[in-house]
Design brief:
By secondary structure, the protein is an alpha+beta fold. About 50% of the residues lie in helices and about 10% in strands. The chain has 25 helices and 15 strands. Strand 12 and strand 13 form a beta hairpin.
Length: about 700
């Protein structure tokens, strides 16, 4: 009898942890050599979404402030509440305080890849798989599902907490206790603090489903025993989940407040009278499941991905999707191992019943990933909050990886340790290359050796816009939403997953210039709209054929930063100034404004002095969002009560006050009220959990 057969296979020793950690690092080096050499990701949401957030977060941390408001994307939005900035997530707090933005982003990215592999391996070991088979599980799970989603930072963060929460759930169910429950609660909470709660919700569902699945699929259990397992499992897992939600209230409360004022409330409709927010977006078309066998040589071939042929397959949802959201591939060799379970002889040899649990969970997840059940389950709490039912395929990826590892474990059960290692290395190498080929064709992000962000300081657009912004606040109407934020100036339109509803209304739809259009641009209606939004500059990639009289060309030449982000080679970028634009501060009547002096501009605090020559209404062209308040004082410092305009005259895109002739000093402040309420809830919950854990440990020590 081998020593490995005597030792509990569920508890790996120190040498195995080292082995898994080293394997994880080797795979990381193989998959992301360009990032390890100082390169960076380009494509997808990397520059339009994440870097504009991370840059402001780093700047606010450096200034000693908590970045609760983003003042550069459109007319501003609550950055903390939007959640994807993950402001309160510990790795973000550490990385963006200590490292430059580009380094912090990619160090966090790589760290989560490594941890995701180790956590997936550890969960596989907790299910009885031996060391070599468990290593294959980590490889198939992490490098099958996540590289195709490289432009979605939240995906690999979920890749860490998904298997970790499952492992902690398994430990809790095996031996319930206060300490284990508290650890699971902390894991749930940290996953929520990382923002973008879709994978956190999927993780929570899996953890709650596991005790039920085990009770139903475990052999030789009496009905009373099954009911006992379900009750105990739901009680412990449910209480851990509730505590996790309360611990994360500091993030959840602001996000829930934003959700009620966002496009996801279901009230907004597009031109076809369909809701702006469609939870079925990002589904996995049923026939596209055949990518498990018809992978990079058909479905994942670049020309097929670009043709979006998946949407023209039978029984696909009417909602839109893309190859990244719908990606599901475990590799041909692991899938062949899974197919061996069709043999009754193999099934009888499989140890335990965990593989049945994950087969059932994978089947359920695959059905929901198609989007068929969204109209039904979308009415339940949680399901209707998120887009991307295709993301439920993470359960399929993990389930099939575990099944492949279990079958391999069974086939090699009576083989020597040396042979197991050789087989794992052979299958792992071929599978890793297989997964790489597939994900590279599907992914919308690539690694470049010289990242565009490193060229930002050489940008002429940065210099021009910053020079203008020092005189008076700049707001740019630019293609590629949010990217102009990286110049340190405000830009429209916006790109937000969870954003204020006002940005998704028809009033905020701006018409970009069309190449070759002989009509003067902007038309009078668009010029009036841009002026009301405080837009001062226009950035285009093509020369405007017939610029309106209000447009003055500032400069036209290639930009060191923007050309590389957009992959435009040496084509010029065109920057126009809009003459006559009222800018961010406006009055009605317009000639009432005499003088403006900007004193301080911070994301969540504006201070300026205004002189008006007659009675008027002062407009600040920023988002009129709950949480903003104003203090007004005369030059001698005497406070004045604000005189708001009538409710019927207020707008989403302007904050307005009535003024008499005179000079005034204004301080606009943003108070994230939900943050402090949530922080109180989180703090009380953490204190209660700590007391319970200490009392429990003292009780055990006395025994």
């Amino acid at each position: 009898m081998r020593s490995e057969d005597v030792v509990n296979p569920r508890i790996p020793g120190t040498s195995e942890w080292v082995l898994a950690s080293v394997f994880g690092l080797l795979l990381l080096c193989w998959q992301w050599p360009g990032l390890l050499r100082g390169g960076g990701l380009v494509g997808g949401d990397t520059y339009p979404y994440f870097f504009p957030q991370k840059q402001l977060i780093a700047q606010e941390f450096a200034a000693g402030r908590l970045p609760v408001w983003h003042d550069l994307t459109a007319l501003g939005y609550p950055l903390l509440a939007e959640s994807q900035g993950a402001i309160l997530y510990p790795p973000v707090q550490i990385a963006y305080r200590l490292l430059p933005v580009h380094a912090a982003y990619h160090v966090s990215f790589l760290l989560h890849y490594w941890l995701a592999y180790v956590m997936a391996w550890r969960y596989a070991r907790s299910q009885g798989l031996r060391r070599w088979s468990a290593l294959l599980v980590g490889l198939v799970f992490v490098y099958g599902w996540f590289p195709a989603r490289a432009s979605l930072e939240w995906s690999i963060i979920g890749g860490v907490w998904f298997p970790l929460c499952l492992w902690l759930t398994t430990r809790l169910l095996e031996r319930p206790g206060i300490l284990r429950s508290a650890l699971l609660s902390a894991a749930f909470a940290l996953h929520l603090l990382a923002g973008h709660f879709a994978l956190a919700f999927i993780t929570q569902l899996c953890c709650l489903a596991i005790p039920l699945a085990h009770a139903l699929l475990a052999p030789s259990l009496l009905r009373s025993e099954r009911l006992s397992i379900v009750r105990s499992g739901f009680a412990w897992c449910g209480s851990a989940l509730l505590c996790g939600l309360l611990l994360a209230a500091v993030q959840l409360k602001p996000t829930l407040d934003l959700r009620q004022a966002s496009q996801r409330d279901g009230a907004l409709q597009d031109d076809t009278q369909r809701p702006i927010f469609n939870p079925a977006y990002g589904h996995l078309p049923p026939l596209y499941l055949t990518q498990l066998v018809a992978s990079w040589w058909y479905w994942h071939a670049p020309e097929v991905v670009q043709s979006r042929e998946m949407l023209r397959t039978p029984f696909a949802s009417t909602a839109d999707t893309n190859a990244v959201e719908a990606h599901l591939y475990v590799g041909l060799l692991p899938f062949a191992l899974c197919l061996l379970t069709l043999s009754g002889g193999i099934r009888r040899q499989l140890a335990g019943h965990h593989w049945k649990v994950w087969l059932a969970l994978s089947a359920a997840a695959a059905v929901y990933a198609t989007g068929w059940l969204v109209p039904i389950l979308g009415r339940l709490p949680g399901f209707g909050f998120f887009m991307g039912p295709g993301r439920y395929s993470i359960i399929c990826q993990f389930g099939l990886a575990l099944l492949a590892g279990t079958v391999l474990d069974t086939l090699l059960r009576r083989r020597s340790e040396f042979l197991r290692a050789i087989v794992l290395l052979l299958i792992g190498t071929l599978t890793f290359m297989d997964l790489q080929w597939s994900s590279q064709a599907v992914s919308d992000a690539v690694v470049v050796s010289s990242p565009p962000l490193h060229s930002l300081s050489d940008s002429w657009l940065l210099r021009e816009l910053q020079a203008s912004d020092r005189i008076s606040p700049v707001r740019v109407f630019a293609p590629g939403p949010n990217i102009a934020n990286l110049f340190g100036v405000s830009s429209v339109p916006q790109y937000l997953g969870l954003g204020p509803a006002a940005y998704f209304s028809s009033q905020f739809r701006l018409v970009a210039p069309e190449a070759g259009n002989p009509a003067p641009y902007p038309a009078p209606e668009l010029f009036a709209q841009l002026s009301r939004l405080g837009v001062t500059h226009l950035l285009t990639t093509e020369r405007i054929t017939q610029p309106a009289a209000q447009l003055q060309l500032v400069k036209a030449e290639p930009d060191a930063f923007l050309n590389r982000v957009w992959g435009r080679g040496s084509e010029p970028c065109y920057l126009y100034r809009i003459e006559g634009s009222a800018g961010r501060l406006q009055t009605e009547p317009a000639d009432a404004l005499q003088q403006v002096r900007w004193i301080s501009r911070q994301p969540a605090r504006l201070e300026f002095e205004v002189s008006v020559r007659s009675d008027c209404v002062l407009h600040l062209a920023d988002l009129n969002f709950p949480g903003w308040s104003v203090e007004i004082a005369e030059p001698d410092g005497q406070s004045i009560a604000p005189q708001p305009v009538a409710a019927a005259d207020t707008e989403d895109f302007r904050r307005s006050l009535r003024l008499s002739a005179g000079t005034y000093r204004f301080i606009w402040l943003y108070h994230a009220d939900g943050l402090w309420t949530g922080a109180l809830i989180s703090g009380v919950t953490a204190l209660c959990l700590l007391v319970l854990v200490i009392r429990n440990m003292r009780g055990k020590s006395r025994k």
